[in-house]
Amino acid sequence: MACPHASSVAAYVKSFHPKWSPAAVQSALITTATPMSDKTTPHAEIAYGAGLINPSRAPYPGLVYDLDVQDYVDFLCSQGYSDKLLEQITRDKTTSCSSKFDNEIVNDLNYPSFALPIKDPKFVNGVFHRTVTNVGSSNSIYRAKVVAPSGLKINVDPSVLSFTSLEQKKSFVVTVKGPIEKTSMVSASLVWDDGAFQVRSPIVVYIQL
């Protein structure tokens, strides 16, 4: 039932915000989801995602992580897609990977979660750039709250985002450093909280096989 359930809630959110992009709707579903416990599921967020979708909260996320077509094009270019393959996906002959891209774009895709693959648990170092759009209260101040396991250091800069209007955008950087315990993956989270809205994003660090 996961797919029809998620699709119906997405349609429900879209009925409140008909001009929202698919990325904004997805962001709302992810950041308002109810967190699940990883005690019974060793693969945690990799297995169950951000948590249980909350239909009552999803239309009111407070902040959204939005994306446009060019963001996706840049991402595909960073994955080595040729202009021919890109045209087959976009159906647009004017799109091309004329510029050089690197894999850092994967980290910087404006997604409402953070996943960091590592090769050695002793060396954890990742940087993520994100931009959020205010869709909650016109005048609001969000403060970053991080929950992380012992050994994992997560810094958010800036740690306070002040908004003075709706649709206003603010950017921030998340830095993740270790080491971590000898395990295949660890979970953490970032919550932007203004007292009325809690915008939660899961953070996962995992050993890349």
TrEMBL record:
User: What keywords were assigned to this record?
Assistant: Hydrolase, Protease, Serine protease, Signal
Domain named Peptidase S8/S53: which ranges?
1-51
- Recorded E.C. number(s)? 3.4.21.25
Q: Which Pfam families match?
A: fn3_6, Peptidase_S8
Principal localization reads secreted
Q: Which GO terms describe its biological process?
A: proteolysis
Q: Which GO terms describe its molecular function?
A: serine-type endopeptidase activity
Subcellular location per UniProt equals:
Secreted
What is one GO cellular-component annotation here?
Answer: extracellular region
Q: Where is the Subtilisin-like protease fibronectin type-III domain?
A: 108-205
* Family listed: Belongs to the peptidase S8 family.
Q: What is this protein called?
A: Putative cucumisin
